[in-house]
Input
Amino acid sequence: MTQVTVSELIGQLEAAYDAHPTGVLASDGDFTIWDGDIGEALFEAALEGDLLRDEARAALCREAVAAGVVGAGELSPRELGLSLYAAYRDGRYTELDVCCTMAWAFAGYRHDELAALCDEVLDRFGFEARVRPEMRQVLDWATARQVRFFLVSASPLAVVDAAARRLGVPIAGTVAMTPATEGDVLLARLGLDAT
Output
């Protein structure tokens, strides 16, 4: 992989912009715009605080049994989440599966409740200090040129949206793991039947 300086990158973006001024810019967030994984930070906070709700328990249990992580016993949402997360850390549960699970594991939450939790987690995460200065320059370039910017992540949509607001730049949209909802309440599956 060839490394470029931020000046070289912005020069490349400028050339692309000159050739295609209606283009868009998209970037991953975790370990790209900022250091760390905000989806994992959110899930870890939920596990530490025993914040997963009973609405997620049956789906967590199905996932854990199907993955061969636990038997079919009566475990709490926290215990199931901890088992799946440990299996992910040990390489026995795939990254795709854990990212999906982290999104719908907040079943039973209303959007405003989860948004408030995401803000608390990002505060503890030290989000603003973790934004990479080089990427801040790229975002400032996109803002100055009015290039539409999309934030892309495998983290849960709620925490990606919270991070997007904190970046302080116009964001055309976020693309992230999105749970299904019924009214204003999250369900224990991904939206659009993308399970």
Notes: The first strand starts at residue 24 and ends at 28. The beta strands are 24-28, 148-156, 173-177, 179-182, 185-190. Residues 48 and 99 are 18 Å apart (CA to CA).
